[in-house]
Amino acid sequence: MSSLWDEIKDLFKTDKQLEQERQEKINSALKKEADVSKKLAELEKQYQDSLPKDEEIDFDKLFPTESGLKEIEYTPESDESIEKRAQSAIDSEKKKSQTKIKDMYSDAVAALDNDKDSARQTLSDSYSNLAKLYDELKEKANEDSIKRGMARSSVATNRIDALDQSHVQSATEAEKAYIGAAAKIDEEISKLQRDKDSALEQLDLKSASDLEESIAKLKSERDAKVEEYEKYNNDIRKKNESFQEDRQKKIDAYIADAKAKKAEEEKQQQEYESKYGYSGEKLENYTERYRIAYDFYSALSPDIAVDALKASPNMKYYLGNLYDKLLSSLQSKKNDQKYYF
After folding, report:
1. Is 65 helix (H, G, I), strand (E, B) or coil?
2. Is the pLDDT of residue 242 over 80?
């Protein structure tokens, strides 16, 4: 409390000086208030720790994190792999075709070789039959000449010579027939060889062409599959992104709703406490806060205590409904302050 002499001295100070001194006193009080705020903060923490804790919300349980839609993992086949696979398939088919062509050729040649063997056997049989036939004819001719007593005659000799000539001619004709048949068979075999070589050559060309077509087809199918999966995966990504955005909106709405409900509950609690006051442990806690604050501010000069309380950045929060009570008490002390002039 200021003395009479202090009040007399104040009469000779300008308003600016008085306001400056008043502000310095308030600032000094606010600095000293730090220890008070610390004690009140501890009481606030004790009170908050005593309150039931909000149950932690399991958002993953309320709002599933996955849509269930999965992208397809697809590794496209490389050009090298496609070319090897196509080459393998073409080589396999080519080998089958080559075997078929060679087998057909071998079977045809074997049949012709059999025909040639048959012609050779026919020639051999012809030789044997002609020899037997002409031996019989010569024997019959000799017997006939003997019966006629012409065994040593030139007629008999000429007749035998004629048979020999006929035998030789028949054998020559049979051999010519064999040679002609054998030559024809050899020609057919040579033609078969040419046909086989041509078929194998055409097969090589066809296989090369088929290989190019197969590679082009397989690459086209692969590219189409890549495009198909990429389109599908892009669609899945968009749906999953939309799912996550929608999920976040639901979570935000849930949180906002919970905050609104809590705010409404706190508002109703504040209205009730404003009307009926604190109770229970809260009353004890805030009463202790009020005591600490009252002891501090009532120790200040009444002329600055009210302004120091109003200037405090924390007291209204820490004191709650008791703030106005302290302010009113300090205001009364200020009003009761004795003035000499």
Report:
1. coil
2. yes
